[in-house]
Specification:
The protein contains nine helices and nine strands. The chain is α+β, with helices and mostly antiparallel strands. The protein has a single domain, classed as Beta-lactamase (3-Layer(aba) Sandwich), CATH 3.40.710.10. The strands form three sheets. Strands 2-1-9-8-7 form a five-stranded antiparallel beta sheet, with helices on both faces. The chain has a two-stranded antiparallel ribbon with strand order 3-4. Strands 5-6 form a two-stranded antiparallel sheet. A hairpin with a 5-residue loop joins strand 5 and strand 6. The protein is globular and about 90 Å long.
Length: 300
């Protein structure tokens, strides 16, 4: 009788262990699903991959990358995983978070003047529609417009920056961190050229973002009618196919540039150079290299 009870107890324990393992397995599957980890999101045959022959050009940038936007395949890399300060290319993420929250016609208030770096000298109490401040942030890289966008967020600038870092994790930009929405905290802000290229590829899927960063000149006005003339700092805009994206510079970050080029065959390339001594020259060298080996005309 005792043996039967012992066997029954052992069977009960084993059954409970089995139920526990089954429950644990279900929870793991739920947790993995919540992470939005996509298995093989794009299918490729070998012919789809962009093979490149020839020696790449020498550039001054300490880190750089060129990726194919549609496939996220890297065509050129130089120290592409080195963490470096992004300077004002931080505003690409700032724009994404802002576009997630605001509507174009939302009215935002300038809460405090901001004088550091590139500014429009916006005055305390001025009000603008969100879209106008977005143009000001992305074209002349207005730091006061950027600060206003962050300060008008429901949880303020601190909450805005927290959302920037949350979005970086959601997008699997694991080598990216933001301390501020402007990009002036060189000792704390960091990203890599590859993360920055991937972020840009995602941002360009937003039609409003793509429209704004491809604009060379724009006049905006506050709600009382005072006008501000804006001009993009990206001197490459206007060249065939170039449709953005963002410049950046601080003493610590050096010259930074993110560039997008639409190809005639429907493709799109994203160029990133960081800690460059000649960001426009470096980008043109990479563009000319791809044209020289006929890559731009033979790959979609």
């Amino acid at each position: 009788m005792k043996k039967k009870l012992l066997y029954l107890l052992i069977l009960c324990v084993l059954f409970l262990i089995f139920l526990g393992l089954a429950y644990f397995n279900v929870q793991i599957k739920k947790d993995n699903a919540s992470l939005n980890i996509y298995q093989n999101p794009i299918l490729f045959t070998p012919a789809n991959y962009p093979f490149i022959d020839g020696l790449a050009p020498e550039i001054s940038a300490e880190a750089a990358v060129v990726i194919d936007k549609n496939s996220m395949i890297s065509l050129y890399e130089k120290n592409s995983t080195f963490r470096l300060p992004p300077a004002s290319t931080t505003k690409i993420m700032t724009a994404l978070v802002a576009l997630e929250h605001y509507s174009p016609s939302d009215i935002l208030t300038i809460y405090e003047p901001y004088t550091e770096g590139s500014v429009l000298k916006l005055q305390e109490g001025e009000q603008f529609i969100f879209e106008s401040l977005l143009y000001a942030m992305m074209l002349p890289s207005s730091n006061d417009a950027t600060l206003a966008i962050a300060q008008n967020y429901p949880s303020g600038e601190k909450g805005f920056v927290q959302r920037m870092n949350e979005m970086a994790l959601e997008l699997r930009l694991l080598n990216t961190y933001y301390e501020d929405p402007v990009g002036l905290m060189d000792e704390k802000d960091y990203t890599t050229s590859f993360d920055l290229a991937r972020l840009t590829a995602i941002a360009l899927d937003n039609p409003e973002f793509a429209k704004i960063v491809s604009t060379r000149e724009k006049t905006i006005a506050n709600i009382k009618g005072k006008e501000y003339k804006l001009e993009s700092l990206n001197v490459l805009l206007g060249l065939p196919g170039i449709n953005g994206v963002k410049t950046g510079y601080t003493e610590g970050a050096g010259q930074v540039l993110v560039t997008s080029k639409k190809l005639e065959n429907g493709g799109e390339l994203i160029f990133v150079v960081m800690q460059s001594q000649d960001r426009f020259g470096d980008t043109m060298a990479l563009l000319n290299y791809l044209e020289k080996i006929n890559y731009l005309s033979i790959h979609p």
